[in-house]
Amino acid sequence: MATLKIYADRNSQPSRAVILFCKLNGIEFEEVKIELFKREHRSPEYAEITPMRQVPAIAHGEFKLFESHAILIYLACAFPTVAGHWYPTDLFKRAKIHSVLDWHHTNLRRGSVGYLLNAKLAPVFGLPLNPQAAAEGEKVLIASLSKIESFWLHEDGKFLLGNDQPSIADLSLLSEVMQLELLDENERSRILGPFKKVHRWIEDVKNATQPHFDDVHAVLFKTIATAKKQQVDTARS
Amino acid sequence: MATLKIYADRNSQPSRAVILFCKLNGIEFEEVKIELFKREHRSPEYAEITPMRQVPAIAHGEFKLFESHAILIYLACAFPTVAGHWYPTDLFKRAKIHSVLDWHHTNLRRGSVGYLLNAKLAPVFGLPLNPQAAAEGEKVLIASLSKIESFWLHEDGKFLLGNDQPSIADLSLLSEVMQLELLDENERSRILGPFKKVHRWIEDVKNATQPHFDDVHAVLFKTIATAKKQQVDTARS
């Protein structure tokens, strides 16, 4: 069996989705850390893995692939041990999963990244904060959460599309929503507060993916704790 | 056989990709025009088809679907007459097609829409032009074209990913690039000029998809001709 290498930074939401998927399905892999904060994704060596210089990427033997949704689908098909609910073979169910994943790119992800980067994270990457872009990102983020609440989550079935068991779409979208933990408590409440079904879905996906969920998110929680400590120290000094 | 309805505006690039795919594969469909310039996508009736109120969407019997990539994949799988090169069953080839389609969302499409909307089309939708957003869009657009030139097109094989025959990715990305015809000749040359392989690829996909290509793009060319006439009339008055 060819070795599976996953090039990832667990601070990145699509990296976490791919690693979590592998752990949930007993897929063995070697994790190659590409630390975004150290700009390791810009190295010439990493450009050999993916010319897009983003995480995650995989190398499965000689086969290289990037884009997390494409990777999740590939892994679900390449490993026969993966349970059917992650990426059903049924034509209609599969089409709906593609639809929510495509929607994610230009809605939830665009809003979440646009808001977080421009309201919070830009200085980490040597960029200025951009209040106008942050406001635009927040608008898209809230509209996206509202669509998850009113459309992608149904009354019957705990998971996206009204499914009884989680799919790769739940992993991808939840990893994105978890990134909002980087916000202050008040800010996060303001944004996520109104969406009761989204809250319940977050808990349901967490519960369905433990103990791997906590394990895969530990790096993000450590980053958050460090950032909060720095804020307190700065406020004191 | 269930009726296939395609809700589309041929001025929209993903609408054209879906219609072109059906015509190329002899898939019968009823086209339901949703005119964006008349804001027909905002009507309550259309919200029943897709709550996202974007084009294209399909209804195949009772089954409704939106997001053009998801639609292309669904149609390629639902109609057994579709030739294998459009969406190969091979695990690795299919994964690469997913990768280029996912990449498209946050690169070529983001750049193209960001530039065209903010530099040119905003007034049509009652919005102001936004030079800063246009500049950002142009940067993403040019970086994306550069990646098509240097990575997605290979020396061997005329089409994306070095394929000898076109795939759904060629239809989706070419429909996007055709939208740049809305620019003035000089502007279009400035943006597309440096990319020789992209130029050859445009011609190769056009040739491989005629006479349907011209047929499906006729509405866009008419829109462009009308806009140019209006510009000349405005300059004269």
Automatic annotation (TrEMBL), chains A, B:
GO terms for biological process: toxin catabolic process. Residues 2-83 form the GST N-terminal domain. Its EC number is 2.5.1.18. InterPro entries: Glutathione-S-Trfase_C-like (IPR010987), Glutathione-S-Trfase_C_sf (IPR036282), Glutathione_S-Trfase (IPR040079), Glutathione_S-Trfase_N (IPR004045), GST_C_Theta (IPR040077), GST_N_Theta (IPR040075), GSTT1/2/3 (IPR043377), Thioredoxin-like_sf (IPR036249). Residues 90-232 form the GST C-terminal domain. Keywords: Detoxification, Transferase. PANTHER family: GLUTATHIONE S-TRANSFERASE T1-RELATED. Belongs to the GST superfamily. Theta family. This is glutathione transferase. It comes from Nepenthes gracilis (Slender pitcher plant). The lineage of its organism: Eukaryota, Viridiplantae, Streptophyta, Embryophyta, Tracheophyta.
